[in-house]
Amino acid sequence: MELLEARKNSSSEQLRDIEDQQILRILAKQKELGFEIATDGEFRRRNFMSDFTGAVEGFDLTCAVGRTWRADQADTAPVSSVTGIVSSKLRSVRPLTGHELPFLKAHSALPIKVTLPSPTQFPAISFKRGVTDKVYPDHSALLSDVVKIMKNDLSELCAQGVSYIQIDAPRYSYYMDPKWRSWIRTELQIDPDSALDEAIRADNECLRAARREGVILGMHLCRGNNRSHWYAEGGYDAIAEKLFGTLEVDRFLLEYDDERSGTFEPLRFVPKGKTVVLGLISSKVPRLEDPGQVARRIDAASRYVPLENLALSPQCGFASTAEGNLITESHQWAKLELVVDTARRMWA
């Protein structure tokens, strides 16, 4: 709460000091729990994409495309969110994570994990007809410029010694959900299968720019995560063979916290040697998962991917936006402790 209040009422210098204090606090907690990699929890961001929109000129944050989310809990009201649209040619004005990495390197001896949004996020939510098409004729042209910016930054992150890069790509859930496939066809006026192929090509371009010896590349897929709400549903079946077979990542971080995620059967398409991180722990609801049930689900997934190529995590971050989900910090740490304890037991 202190950090949220500071965002509203503090000067930039005061905000930076409070961010530093809070990041030091969570770094210490990660160490206490036994984490083997460090993250700042995206505490310097407004949302999981704001490093990009904050470092790149061309976004109009006052003119946006609205989206309505669906609730995970029956007693929560619908949430509407907005994302800035592209109104002028994109131009990078600073490194995307340039305000995050130096502090992490200075205050943690652990390997560092950095997250960035997939370039595929922006054509879908930041392209508005009558505005964006004055500078980019179509979604593909916008995507091309986003990819160029991302490639430069990913290459620089690797040069600076980042050990783990995670690309957050919730947009792939649109290709699983019949409702959203129809939306792509009618609203974006794009063939969903062609759009999926283009999205994979774009992400692979970025991943190749980050490919270095000793750097782990992960891709996180979810179905929406905002104030304990979601926007898509459906298993991975519709895209599994193409997605798992062609995305050039080391790890797939997959949402599997409830029935909306489908079965483990699509994991049979994951190539040998790649890791699947099972998102079995919900970031949306405070209820703590049963350790025995989590272990049984891991065993069930191991029918399709060998146990040594499985891992465990929450299904998404606890806060895709600064406001966070409807869950307390103590619940969050309890869930992360469950992840650590289960991992030690299952992969000791």
Describe this structure in words.
The chain is α/β, with parallel strands linked by helices. Helix content is 39%, strand content 19%. The chain has one domain (33-347): TIM Barrel. The longest helix is centred in the first third of the chain and has 22 residues, at 12-33.
Features:
TIM Barrel; three-stranded antiparallel β-sheet; alpha/beta; 11 helices; six-stranded parallel β-sheet; 39% helix; 348 residues; 9 strands
Give the strand order, joined by hyphens, for the main sheet: 3-4-5-7-8-9
Strand content: 15-25%
Q: Span from first to last CA?
A: 37 Å
Q: What's the Cα radius of gyration?
A: 19 Å
CATH class: Alpha Beta
* Helix amount: 25-40%
**Domains counted in the coordinates: how many?**
1
Q: Ranges with pLDDT <50 over ≥5 residues?
A: 71-81
Mean pLDDT level: 88
Query: Per CATH, which architecture?
Result: Alpha-Beta Barrel
Q: Strand tally, please?
A: 9
Largest sheet: 6 strands, parallel
* CATH level 3 topology: TIM Barrel
How would you spell out the order of helices and strands?
HHHEEHEHHEHHEEHEEHEH
Tell me, what's the shape?
globular
Structural classification: alpha/beta
Number of helices: 11
Question: Nutshell version of this structure?
Answer:
With 348 residues, this protein is an alpha/beta fold.
